């Protein structure tokens, strides 16, 4: 009988090959084919960090208009609106509360670049409000949110793109096709690498909430804490209430690619170890993390490494993936490059370098009302994020875990299963029924 992990693999393979027919970006319908009423109006939610790229990338697309900038920090929103007016010669609306964005019937799609703990809830609320969604990685803060997000996208017939932009790289699409075609033989192992410079963040303690920041709204579904500059605006990544460490930050690109390249779903066995070895700061998540995800029934394994500071590269890679087969191996460096090495002599094989436009891909799917056109569909938000979550749970519990991919729960382990969701703070609760 075909199990759920089999169906996931079929989905991932379909998603991979669907855009490979021409090995290039899909042709967007030209702007002149639409009237003024066909312009896609986008709101960007969270504009301090990654959201700045969302603003510029959507603004560069034909017949797409960024109409609203939303941020819980009014100071940030005002600065970004001023930057926008200076660059594009027109004013843009600002909001502090994303719920007001969802009430605006003039907005067609939202682009979510908030901290991780808001991603799934913001996306689900958007689907319920009839908005299409581009949501940054990781699409979820815990495993259970992923299934809810898929349910919402399907129930409300929304186009939901996950921000794993390497899936829109034509070079990476080509690399996946080569793996499928057997270039390096039986592909049995993938390594994901995240070697980023992460400094000591110290400990700034608690303090008054800065003027303009709605601290209650910033915390959203998370347990309430006193305000600290330790969290706002970037270092929330290193605290379990808000972030998921670097495997759940930069690493989602690599967890996604590891699963895509190996053609697997969620694993059956997970182990992780690591810790904080360099800085005596207030981070909660590990600086160094080594995770192993085993697929014994399929004879495959994913290894994942997070390192924070001085380290060697692996075949030139600091952030990327390596795939190993019985006839060679493949190196994927960053988002747009791959190389292959064949045989015992490691003879250089096919290589490629080419980019893509993940935002363009999203807009094309929105225009066509066709989720099959998405390179990073909602299922990737669940699976790629889910792999990171499982590794983090194994690290936090300090032991190997057995997982049932069909039921999406740990086997006979109530302590581990308690980490698959969270206690949500009213009124920012994940809906029981989407």
Strand content: 15-25%
Give the total of domains: 2
> What structural category characterises the helix and strand content?
alpha/beta
Give the termini separation. 30 Å
CATH classification, class level of the largest domain:
Alpha Beta
Can you describe what's shown?
With 434 residues, the protein is an alpha/beta fold. The chain folds into two domains: 185 residues, NAD(P)-binding Rossmann-like Domain (Rossmann fold); 194 residues, Dihydrodipicolinate Reductase, domain 2 (2-Layer Sandwich). It is built from twelve helices and 16 strands. It has a ten-stranded mixed sheet. Helix 6 runs antiparallel to helix 11 and helix 9 crosses helix 11. The relative contact order is 0.17. One of its GO terms (molecular function) is nucleotide binding. This is Twin-arginine translocation signal domain-containing protein. It comes from Larkinella terrae. InterPro entries: Gfo/Idh/MocA-like_OxRdtase_N, Gfo/Idh/MocA_oxidrdct_glycsds, Gfo/Idh/MocA_OxRdtase_bact_C, NAD(P)-bd_dom_sf, TAT_signal, TAT_signal_bac_arc.
């Amino acid at each position: 009988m075909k199990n759920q992990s089999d169906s996931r693999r079929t989905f991932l393979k379909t998603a991979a090959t669907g855009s490979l027919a021409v090995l290039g970006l899909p042709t967007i319908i030209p702007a002149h084919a639409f009237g003024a009423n066909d312009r896609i109006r986008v709101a960007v939610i969270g504009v301090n960090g990654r959201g700045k790229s969302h603003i510029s990338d959507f603004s560069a697309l034909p017949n797409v208009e960024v109409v609203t900038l939303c941020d819980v920090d009014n100071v940030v929103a005002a600065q970004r609106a001023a930057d926008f007016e200076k660059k594009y010669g027109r004013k843009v609306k600002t909001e502090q509360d994303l719920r007001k964005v969802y009430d605006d019937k003039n907005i067609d799609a939202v682009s979510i670049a908030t901290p991780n703990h808001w991603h799934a809830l913001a996306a689900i609320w958007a689907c319920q409000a009839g908005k299409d969604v581009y949501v940054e990685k990781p699409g979820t803060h815990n495993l259970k949110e992923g299934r809810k997000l898929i349910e919402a996208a399907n129930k409300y017939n929304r186009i939901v793109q996950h921000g794993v932009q390497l899936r829109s790289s034509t070079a990476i699409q080509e690399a996946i096709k080569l793996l499928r075609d057997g270039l390096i033989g039986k592909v049995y192992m993938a390594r994901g690498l995240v070697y980023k410079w992460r400094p000591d963040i110290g400990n700034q303690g608690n303090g008054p909430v800065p003027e303009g920041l709605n601290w209650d709204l910033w915390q959203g579904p998370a347990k309430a804490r006193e305000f600290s500059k330790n969290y706002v605006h970037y270092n929330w990544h290193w605290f379990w209430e808000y972030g998921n460490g670097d495997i759940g930050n930069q690493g989602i690109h690599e967890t996604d690619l590891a699963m895509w390249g190996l053609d697997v779903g969620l694993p059956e066995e997970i182990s992780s170890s690591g810790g904080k070895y360099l800085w005596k700061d207030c981070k909660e998540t590990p600086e160094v993390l080594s995770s192993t995800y085993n697929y014994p029934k399929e004879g495959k394994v994913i290894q994942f490494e997070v390192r924070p500071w001085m380290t060697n590269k692996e075949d030139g890679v600091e952030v990327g993936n390596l795939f190993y087969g019985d006839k060679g191996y493949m190196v994927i460096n960053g988002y747009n490059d791959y190389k292959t090495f064949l045989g015992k002599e490691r003879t250089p094989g096919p290589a490629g370098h080419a980019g893509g436009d993940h935002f363009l891909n999203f807009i094309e799917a929105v225009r066509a009302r066709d989720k099959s056109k998405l390179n990073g569909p909602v299922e990737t938000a669940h699976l790629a994020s889910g792999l990171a979550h499982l590794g983090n749970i194994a690290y936090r519990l300090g032991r190997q875990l057995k997982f049932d991919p069909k039921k999406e729960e740990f086997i006979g382990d109530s302590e581990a299963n308690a980490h698959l969701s969270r206690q949500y703070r009213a009124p920012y609760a994940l809906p029981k029924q989407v």
